[in-house]
Structure prediction request, 90 residues.
Amino acid sequence: MNAAIDCCTREIVSWSLELRCRTDEAIKLVDSAVAARGIEPGWLTLGTDNGSAFTSRAFRAHLGELGITHRRGGYRDPRARRSSNRGSGS
Prediction:
């Protein structure tokens, strides 16, 4: 199951059930969420996990065409590490 979740409301805004998640499936998921919410260029920053479908060149290029900023999530994103270490005293 692939899901696009609104991080503010935690609402699932788009989902799909596929045998796998490759770039094409990831693009369809984002296109569905954009259409459902009427998202205009510059309105959205998409945070994704580090799955290869969501970090592929084709996926990031498609986001650029839609005017969506991409920010990787998880432990590999230096910005995520920096913000998570602020409260730890290190």
User: Anything to note?
Assistant: Confidence is low (pLDDT under 50) at residues 80-90. The longest strand covers residues 12-16. The chain has one domain: 2-88.
